[in-house]
Amino acid sequence: MGLLKLLAFDADDLAVISAHVQDARVETGDIVWRQSEKRLVIGLYRQDWEQTLSGEPVAGRLVAALRFDRVLACKSRNIDTAVPDTALELIGIEFHPSDEPPGGSAVLMFSKGGMLRLDVECIECALTDLGPDDLGVSDADAADRDGDLGGLA
What we know:
By secondary structure, the chain is of the alpha+beta class. Helix content is 16%, strand content 45%.
């Protein structure tokens, strides 16, 4: 299969993107909040679920970018952005609509209780694969380097 480029404009679309980024590895230094542009961009290593489902013996990872636009506020819990090489594991993304549609909050949930809450005008999200992980960053490599995937205290 080719590289994915998915767009989300509603909660159902966002659920599809969430499924594709499940178990993605993220380093805190790859989370970029551009407040003046109302944009959050996250570089990640996502599981190649298509390869896994095709029966390949060794699942690969893809380098990808996850982008949220029209973000009014970005708040974090249990994520130390001062340590840029802290490894996180993205569990999934949920959307909680506000009382005034189409706005609401997109919540990115990470292992060990880490969270990002994005207050958005509306859902405008993109997941773009950039290519295979040629450097071979795997869960085993991350565990050896960090001692504990997730790195949250």
